[in-house]
Amino acid sequence: MPADAQWSAQGFTCGHQKVYVDLNYAEQSFEGWTELSIVPLTASLSSASLHCFQSEITDCQVNGQGADWLHGNTLKSSTRIANSTAHQHDQLRQKFGIFNRSINACDLHIRFPEGVRVTSQQEDYSTASRETRNDGAAEDNDDAEGKRGLGPATPALANLNQGGPGKVHYKPITVKLWFKGSAPCLGMRFVDCDAGQAYPHVYTSNNPVPCSTSMWLPCLDGWWERSTWELAVCVPKSLGDIFKRKGVMDTNEDGNEEGDETSRDQIPFTVVSSADLIDETASPDDPSCKIISFAQSSPTGAAHIGFAAGPFIKANLAEYSDGEEHLSTNAGAETFGYCLPDHVAEMKSTCYVMHRAMQFFVRDFGSYPYTSYKICFVQDMEVDGVHLASLTLCSSRLLYSERMIDPIYSVTRQLAFLLASQWVGVNTVPRLWSDIWLTMGLAHYMTGLFLRSLMGNNDYRFRLKEAAMKVTEQDIGRPPISSRDWDLPIDERQLAFIALKAPVVLHLLEQRLTKVGGNLGLMRVLPKIFLQSMSGGLVNGQLGTNHFLRQCEKVSHSKLEDFARQWIFGFGYPRFSVVQRFNKKKMVVEMGIRQLQFADDGRQPLDEGRFIDQAYKSLTKPPQPPVEAVFTGPMTIRLHEADGTPYEHVVDIKEQFTKLDIPYNNKYRRRARTKAKKAKLADGEDEEATTDNINCLGDGLQSEQDVVQYKLQDWTKEDELKMSSEAFEWLRMDSEFEWICTMSVGQPDYMFQSQLQQDRDVVAQYDAVRYFASAKPSFLVSTILFRTLMDERYYYGIRMLAADALSRAAVSELDMRGEFHLLMAFKARFCFTESEQFVPLDNDFCNFANYFVRCAIIRALCNVRVDGAATAAVRMFMLTQLKYNDNFNNAFDDSHYVSTLLQALTDVLIHRNLELAGNPLEQADFAEDFQASLAELDKWQRLDRWMPSFQNVTTQTVLSCKEQLMRANLLQRSLKEFLFFTQEDHYALVRLQAFKCLMGLAALREASIVRFLFFTMKHDESAYVRARLSEIVQYGFGCLALHARSGDGNDNAVDALIFEEDASEAVALRREREMRSTLSGAMTALRQELSWDSTLKQQLWSVANGCTHLNPLIRRNMLDVCKILYEPVASRILKFTLPSMKARLRARHLGNGRVVINKVRPLEKYQKKAPVKIKLKLFNSAAKRKSLM
């Protein structure tokens, strides 16, 4: 059913809603009332149904009269099965249907009293004179509500019943509900509200989607039912007033009352809401509290209504901008930031560009849909951020100081995306679930354009190309981005692939539009759509894919059916293989383009983190339709001829094989540099040569001294003769980046070198480096990549790719030339040149590009291997960098850099081919390096305890490193070391990393750890830990499924390296590994190993079925595991209460003073009757059972 028709089928809409909520921090509870102005759509309306999944309803009135209501408490009663086991997982999954957007999801049903009837507006006009007599009473009611922070009802109902002539308009009906809740697990979060905590605060979680607001507020939840709002929140006046409501004063260790006036206790409480601030008054019931009132005049769905209340510090983000940007006349809406008192400095550095982002979006996409924008940082959020109307709630994990480098880009992109979601995602919402790709993709597309203005076009195109390559790796057997197949509630992991592919598809669409319809493209379409949403042109702000495509067709004056079928409603991508040759007789370049789609069998590569999701989809999802036989569309081919002039040719791909002739326009030969000219250029002697040759990137290090010092090698004379005889410099396919594809172009290495050095497009350089990374290693390839790495004129992402590609040239046949070039590049930039042991200079990260290249070289050296083992030179290099790392004079933090070194040191200790590894500890040099590495790991772990790094990232890395060493049988397996870091007094990310290490070490086989793990998942105070822990448990099952059980289970991992087995055992082990390499085989192995484990089965079912207070996403994650491990059972055990079978004495009065006493058995009268038959409807087949799910 379309979203805009769902509630019309119920017979009413909501025009306006008032909310009053009183927050009790000491008891972690809330209570309040809400008043809904319901607009009937039919005269026969006699009841109303609302969403209310967690709060308790205490009273109900309809038009001021008491009304009957029925509250099903669906979340607790209908989402668990009594007397069941894990084999009933299919039956429990059916009960999770309450989270879909059907009318049956409502569990609060209100029946109107007899005195309430639906009247039309015409009848209302006839009684207007009588209503005016009661104005005094109405004013009294308004005054009473005004004391609670809400003014008289002013619902925006004018447009709700607009229609054609003759349509009946009905008078709104007022439904008022009183509700309360205690220690809510969903919808509202009380954080640090126990006595002695630093900064207690409360916020609405608005997660998961849908049905998040209805977890604490009776309403019509979701995106599509919109209304105006009034909100009043009662909170303590200051931090010191929290516990005064209980009448108990906190005492410190000395016994003195902490109720005295202190600077901390005087911090005022602030409420940040999705609505606009109206008033702040004292509470008439409690002098220690205040009521803060808000109003939302723009119709907004309940899913985008929320608030945060706590001792927040407010800051105007315009003041953080550079220079006088905040004084610009086109500054857009005001932007404010809120955070707890101990995060003010971090908020300044984190939100540094937010006001600039607001200016950019307002300038390019139209007016901001609300009056102001607020961003509030809170603690213990399950996700990084949620967008509400004019408000973004973000996790404090996103905050970073001005000394940090690594989080800058990722956090800035996340915050800019949340701001862009105000235009598309909040004010403009998807019309159907299948349109989520559009709102997410447009928000990410807008974010990318802003980052392009911030960081440059090279950065934008490079990251877009990287995203396209990731799509080619992941778009195997996945559903289309416009898919109706959603598992509700929505998990953010379900949206990860859409967030990756959708903006790339929109970029392709932009290229199609600008190629056909001009230079504006989507920049002309999006402002029109946003204007339609703000002006009411889109019904309830709902944007559908078809409407969006029609707007694009109007701009380009072309049809987009093929594009939509292939990239939006289809899946997969093409693979192109291009061959070419120059026909000197015809003076044309003959070219053949072949398109392939059928190389893959549709199976995704198995991964521990996604194994449960892959296995569940293989059991439940229908087979995908075949991939498009031929992807069609225009492709731009750019031919750089001999004089360097580029000529573009557009070919329309319509068939699987396309043959074409490209005319040649130049009669000159290809210009190539000889060694003599290069030497003269390096010495600056031949000025004529500089004018005759093109200025190239990557042409440094040409002197004889550089050639000898860095062992460089250039083209031979034979190669140069061949190069000079070529008709063109290089050939560039898809030069406008109009395709998501893989491209294999048949041209010589020197043409790719010309493309790398002379083409200024970063995408062309990206393709060239990828070619050299996959080409056969040679001295020449290593030289080209080394010069690219050393040339700072390249975009730093290209230099990082070149460093990674150099590791593939580190082979014994080339005397490890790639390793030599990587070490020399690091030494030339970051070490003392006189040192032979690569002693580093003091850290100086002021040049961010060099910092990222430095980390890339370190990661690339980890891939330098000889028969699977790292070289001794690389191991010593890593130890030297850690030993002599000095960050004392550096203006920036080195936490992530040290973590990179620690991870790299661990990588070089682990053999890539364990079957050939033997026992490396028997080698003296390796044993010495291994002990020195362990000492470094312990040293940095102790330092992080004394001087904590950013988010304890060093401790997280050390734990991960030790877990990898244990899995590689280099370190004794010890679960106790990780259990210590799972305790609640450690940072949340450290705890989660420790749990993940336990899962990687197959701790799910230990019954005691299984009980502790699931106890933490059920009862931990941190909602974020509980949510992430369920994902880590799925990762643990993936590790068990994909890796065979090694050893006999003892903890002496080093002894396990000595294998003494016969041929049959080796064959059996090899067969098991082959079986686990496939999805079906891994599932079978997992069932065989764990299906009998009663402890694991009981704990899994206790979370999935028994813990109704947990986030439904956590329970569903455990249901997915049950689906894979246990066969479904359609039957259930039913328990009936029967009379006692024990005989009793019964006395009967016969009259006249006579009493008869008999011994009677309770079921004696039923013994002669036929047994009672109970008819149960069971599933006849598995197919029918699936159809009913």
UniProtKB/TrEMBL annotation:
It is found in: Nucleus. Its main location: nucleus. Gene3D superfamilies: Neutral Protease Domain 2, tricorn interacting facor f3 domain. Keywords: Nucleus, Transcription, Transcription regulation. One of its GO terms (cellular component) is transcription factor TFIID complex. Residues 119-163 are annotated as: Disordered. Functions as a component of the DNA-binding general transcription factor complex TFIID. Binding of TFIID to a promoter (with or without TATA element) is the initial step in pre-initiation complex (PIC) formation. TFIID plays a key role in the regulation of gene expression by RNA polymerase II through different activities such as transcription activator interaction, core promoter recognition and selectivity, TFIIA and TFIIB interaction, chromatin modification (histone acetylation by TAF1), facilitation of DNA opening and initiation of transcription. This is Transcription initiation factor TFIID subunit 2.
